[in-house]
Amino acid sequence: MRTKPHKEALVEQVLRQIASEVFLPRIVERVRAGLRIQRRVAAMFPSYIFIRLPIDERGKAVRYAHGVRDFVRCGGAPQPISPEVVELLQVKTWPSGVYEPPRVRFHTGERLQIHGGPLRGVEVIFDRELSGPQRVAVLLADVCFPARVILDSEALWRA
Description:
- By secondary structure, the protein is α+β, with helices and mostly antiparallel strands.
- It contains three helices and 14 strands.
- The chain folds into two domains: about 1-100, 2-Layer Sandwich (Alpha-Beta Plaits); about 110-159, SH3 type barrels (Roll), CATH 2.30.30.
- Strand 12 and strand 13 (about 150) form a beta hairpin.
């Protein structure tokens, strides 16, 4: 089911009155707010929600519910999603319905690559985690002198 932008929670409430099985998987995101990284819970799939219902009986009521855009369609017909896919998401988010990705951990001496900002593509060697949200110290890998750089850990990939 497709929703209007940022209306997933509203649609979830509305559809719970129409259908017995409604699932809105959520994910914990880390977002920058000024100089700080904050955690927020958001829809795992923005503008999408899962619902199981007899489409012939209740499809019209669901389709025209407040905040709903349309069914996910393929070739003009509503497209069902595999129950296995939904079950996998339910297992990952159980019991709260919210998935919190594990924090990426690097090891001292591990070779990494910066994937964002002005140093994009530069190879570095992980030095250590710092106090503060998601901050790490890395050493530039291919320079003749030891140059330490402080980065957000989200800016690193394994090389």
